[in-house]
Amino acid sequence: MARGFELFFAISLLLALLGLCKGSTIGVCYGRNADDLPTPDKVAQLVKQHNIKYLRIYDSNIQVLKAFANTGVELMIGIPNSDLLPFAQFQSNADSWLKNSILPYYPAAKITYITVGAEVTESTDNSSSLVVPAMQNVFTALKKAGLHKRIKVSSTHSLGVLSRSFPPSAGAFNSSHAHFLKPLLEFLADNQSPFMIDIYPYYAYRDSPNNVSLDYALFQSSSEVIDPNTGLLYTNMFDAQIDSIYFALMALNFRTIKIMVTETGWPSKGSPKEKAATPDNAQIYNTNLIRHVINDSGTPAKRGEELDVYIFSLFNENRKPGLESERNWGLFYPDQTSVYNLDFSGKGVVDMTDSNVTSLNGTTTTWCIASTKASEADLQNALDWACGPGNVDCSAIQPSQPCYEPDTLLSHASFAINSYYQQNGATDIACSFGGNGVKVDKNPSYDNCVYMTAGANKTAATNTTAISSTPSSSTRNEAIAWVPSFLLMTLLPTLLTLKNL
Ligand SMILES: *[C@@H]1O[C@H](CO)[C@@H](O)[C@H](O)[C@H]1NC(C)=O
Ligand SMILES: *[C@@H]1O[C@H](CO)[C@@H](O)[C@H](O)[C@H]1NC(C)=O
Ligand SMILES: *[C@@H]1O[C@H](CO)[C@@H](O)[C@H](O)[C@H]1NC(C)=O
Ligand SMILES: *[C@@H]1O[C@H](CO)[C@@H](O)[C@H](O)[C@H]1NC(C)=O
Ligand SMILES: *[C@@H]1O[C@H](CO)[C@@H](O)[C@H](O)[C@H]1NC(C)=O
Ligand SMILES: *[C@@H]1O[C@H](CO)[C@@H](O)[C@H](O)[C@H]1NC(C)=O
Ligand SMILES: *[C@@H]1O[C@H](CO)[C@@H](O)[C@H](O)[C@H]1NC(C)=O
Ligand SMILES: *[C@@H]1O[C@H](CO)[C@@H](O)[C@H](O)[C@H]1NC(C)=O
How far apart are CA 313 and CA 396, in angstroms? Predict the structure, then answer.
């Protein structure tokens, strides 16, 4: 019996892991060049509340590392340009930094990348000559600690690293950077580290609004730009800029290096001259970006290629110099209210009306819906489970009922998953569904279809014995008569965890 159970558990765990298989990801940059930001502990709550799973910071601040310990949020940490010299000079400096400033907080703080230097081609000092030696010393320190496979070392770049970016196929690195770029690219290729690029269609538009269409920059162009050399069609500038990097890498025969976008975004406010810096445009850019990326659609030159992207930035940063827009890239105000709504699942409907609902008061309502990445089979399993043993009232998704339309598995499963979640304490576990549930803080209700909220109905039982009994006779859906036992395997980890609570 025990053995059988173990096997059962092993298989279900495998299924759960498969379900979590990582596609493209969306993270957020947590810049802290401001004097009015919440404490890192509060920020960690905010990040978790908004289901942000990847975070980039620009240093290795201990308070931040501590605040994100055991949150599950993956961290990209950084070594600022101003600190490169000691890292480049002596291996022992990198060793002691790792030992004293990182390892005490690792792996509780889930660090997966270290960026050594940032946009060194933009800096006026020596950074570019220091960056590769510093990267090598950090890598060697990680290797001594046995962590070089778990924590990747790279460095971020601006598009200024190229001398040419249009058409994308003509993308080429500026040869005046060759002295550090060549060893840098060799380092990345040798260690399977990504090339990190910060991409800003906003600046391209702002700086030449006559040559660049706003729609093209915002992912909503109805026309295409053709690359005359390759015949590839571009519908947005983001893809074109990424492909210019691909072609620049290919021109130097670095075909295996992947690209990661370590910053992109759109400001919500600017100086009078920066007319495109509005909350509407910022919301459109980031919403379309997320939809574009999590679809795993890739770019025209690399169809279907996964892409990890970080949105700049978490907060408006009042200490940043420069034009008004520089201080207004945030998704959140320092008081933690949203500047505009953004759905990290890439599914939600854009709605400006309830921007400020997400104040962090510990009582914010959340919903749990089906992941757009879930397979049909996973969605069906989740639906069958929730409406069967899960004791959810699924009458609203029956024909002619308010939540029947749209008649898709995704929509029906979302409704059922949410009801299950709300009836079972609205805990993360109740939203798990083998990795197919996604928490959202935007009400998914539409028209007359009302999604349940916490506390609305407490009648459901979270009793693990339910899996061995026949579904409750109150099951409303005739089509979903019974849940085949194999379907339960994907849910077993959830149930086991529930039991252990
Ligand atoms: C630049 O680096 C060289 C050695 O790499 C050093 O001698 C020089 O002082 C540095 N200059 C600045 C401005 O840091
Ligand atoms: C290449 O880089 C050098 C040094 O930063 C700069 O002066 C030059 O304008 C760049 N060339 C192009 C075509 O961007
Ligand atoms: C932008 O358009 C102007 C003319 O409208 C042209 O002179 C200029 O070269 C263009 N700039 C770029 C970067 O294509
Ligand atoms: C997502 O991918 C599908 C097929 O791969 C495609 O039809 C759809 O247009 C894509 N959506 C977006 C927003 O790119
Ligand atoms: C949201 O809150 C900010 C600051 O608290 C305020 O300036 C803004 O007007 C609010 N937006 C809406 C739509 O209420
Ligand atoms: C939550 O909101 C209530 C009423 O608006 C307020 O009294 C309370 O202090 C808030 N709690 C926190 C933790 O901010
Ligand atoms: C709670 O559930 C019961 C039985 O499933 C149902 O009759 C009742 O209408 C529900 N109440 C609410 C507020 O949804
Ligand atoms: C689960 O159901 C069994 C049998 O109905 C009951 O004895 C047990 O107390 C229930 N457990 C919980 C946590 O409700």
Answer: 39
Could you give the CA distance from residue 336 to residue 315 in angstroms, rounded to a whole number?
Answer: 8
| Interatomic CA distance for residues 318 and 37, integer angstroms | 9
CB 494 within 8 Å of CB 434: yes
Ligand 7 contact via 356 beta carbon (within 6 Å): no
Cα–Cα distance measured from residue 37 to residue 39, given in angstroms and rounded to the nearest whole number: 7
Mean pLDDT value across residues 151-158: 98
Q: What is the spatial distance between Cα 23 and Cα 345, in angstroms, rounded to a whole number?
A: 13
Task: Tell me how far apart the alpha carbons of residues 474 and 459 are, in angstroms, rounded to a whole number.
Answer: 12
214 Cα–ligand 2 center, Å: 27
Question: Residue 432 has which token pair?
Answer: 């798990």
- E strand map for 145-258: 152-158, 162-164, 172-173, 195-198, 225-226, 233-234
d(CA 487, CA 467): 11
Ligand number, closest to the Cα atom of 467: 8
Nearest CA-CA partner of 269 in 222, 220, 235, 320: 320
Could you tell me the two tokens for 128? 């570019």
Question: pTM score, two decimals?
Answer: 0.65
**DSSP single-letter state for residue 83:** G
Neighbours of 42 (CB within 10 A): 13
Q: Can you list the domains of the chain with their CATH numbers?
A: 31-357 (3.20.20.80), 367-500 (no CATH)
Query: Which of 90, 124, 126 to mutate for ligand 1's pocket (most ligand atoms within 8 Å of CB)?
Result: 126
**Span 296-343, pLDDT tens digits:** 889 999 999 999 999 999 999 999 999 999 999 999 999 999 998 887
The CA distance from 205 to 328, in Å, is: 17
Exposure of 309 by Cβ count < 10 A (0-12 exposed, 13-18 middle, 19+ buried)? buried
From 6, 74, 119, 326, active-site residue: 119
Q: Which of these ranges, 339-343, 375-379, 461-465, has the smallest mean pLDDT?
A: 461-465
- For residue 41, the one-letter residue type is D
Region label for 482, one of left (φ > 0), alpha (ψ between -120 and 50) or beta (otherwise): beta
Q: What does the alpha-carbon distance between residue 242 and residue 246 come to, in Å, rounded to a whole number?
A: 7
Ligand 4 pocket (Cβ < 6 Å) reads: 291-292, 295, 297
User: What does the chain come to in residues?
Assistant: 501
Amino acid letter at 394?
A: C
* Cross-strand pairs, 446: 449
Tokens of 436: 């197919």
- Residue with CA at minimum distance from ligand 6 atom 10: 361
For residue 466 the two structure tokens come to 């339910």
SS3 per residue for 94-106: HHHHHHHHHHHHC
> Which residue shows structure tokens 């920059």?
217
